Amino acid sequence: IETLRHKLPNIRGWLWVDDGSGPCPGWATPYDAVAASKPGRQRAPWGRDGDDIYMLYTGGTTGMPKGVMWRQDDIFFTLNAAAMGVRHPDEPDYDAVRKNVTAPGMVALPACPLMHGTGAFTSFGILDTGGSIVTLEGRTFEAEEFLDAVQREKVNAVAIVGDAFAKPILRALDANPGKWDLSSLVAITSSGVMWSEETKQGLLKHHPGMLLADAFSSSEALGMGTSVSTAGGTTSTAKFALGETTRVITEDGRDVQPGSEEVGRVALKGRGRVPLGYYKDEEKSARTFLVIDGERYSIPGDYATVDADGTLRILGRGSVCINTGGEKVYPEEVEEVIKTHVAVRDAVVVGVPDEKWGEAITAMVETHPGAAVDEAELIGHVKAKLAAYKAPKRVLTVDTVGRAPNGKVDYKRLRDEAVARVG
């Protein structure tokens, strides 16, 4: 905070919460002192206005994070619908609440940060059904600490953000077979970034009885699609069953027809309950939250097509789409193929300005310790699974792609780095 404080001139006061790390700085006020100064001022346990705003900040993968403004009633309704439908009364009535929650709820562990939607919304949904939340103590995600907590606390449900969390867990399990008792674990849910089917199947080998759910959601749109993997059934990476109120809409407003190979934007109606907009960004709000056929939709910018069987195949965010030789390429689709190479630990794909192609697809690759990757071999690996024009023109190795604790990457930073290295 000390290093950032001078960049935030509009903040009128700082409250210091004692975490044992040191004394209160002179520019802040101890929270305990403020609370003690007005002991009689307490908020009633019931009575928050449903129009009060819950501000959720996006991950900021393509720029500065943006505040998504949810009405408290809307976010509660949306999460409540997904969390076993426990209904709370309109008026304060604790007996009615107790009757709804007739047994202890699940024990859940959000392994991802609580400051973003996956961790926060998972916690809200579990607490709303009488469950409890287990949190990790480490400042960064450590797979062994996570697995220790699952065993010790008999965790039933886990929330993660894709392969950034799942792969370290799988590596720890592979390196220590049988070390952890996972019998309490019923489900792992991921949202926010893609979760590869190969990693899912690896996890299921260690605990065949659990369910792995991939939720296609964003800070602005909850429940666009779902994908479930079990030991007895698999699916393809980035394929989802369409949500009940989800549409894929072309640029001219038509619904993408199954099997047509047309590409459109994913739109979620949300039963009338979608965010009010972005905080202090009316222009982006107007582009994202649209009225279609008299209904308000959230369209956060994910592009997809609808396969012949009616499933949703995610291509990626339009904001990071690469235009190479007139063809549109979505980085996430290429990244998932690159990450199936045996030497690759993680990868990010960006477009670098190029005289011939407009943008040349460039892969930033993080390899496993001691492994090396040959550029031509990796390009051939991609061409064997995708159209040739989607393959990288260049492969740059990096020590780390620099994923944030929420599992996401800063595409702008990596693109700038690639441009500097390519020259």
What are the key terms here?
single chain, 423 residues, alpha/beta, Rossmann fold, GMP Synthetase, Chain A, domain 3, 3 domains, eleven-stranded mixed beta sheet, three-stranded antiparallel beta sheet, 11 helices, 23 strands, 25% helix
Structure description:
With 423 residues, this protein is an alpha/beta fold. The chain folds into three domains: 5-37, no CATH class; 53-315, ANL, N-terminal domain (Rossmann fold, 3-Layer(aba) Sandwich), CATH 3.40.50.12780; 321-422, ANL, C-terminal domain (GMP Synthetase, Chain A, domain 3, 2-Layer Sandwich). 25% of the residues lie in helices and 26% in strands. It contains eleven helices and 23 strands. The chain has helices at 31-37, 72-82, 94-100, 117-128, 143-153, 163-175, 197-206, 282-288, 331-338, 375-383, 411-422, and strands spanning 15-16, 29-30, 53-57, 67-71, 107-110, 132-133, 157-160, 187-191, 211-218, 221-229, 239-242, 246-249, 264-268, 277-278, 289-292, 295-298, 302-306, 312-317, 322-324, 327-329, 344-354, 358-367, 394-397.
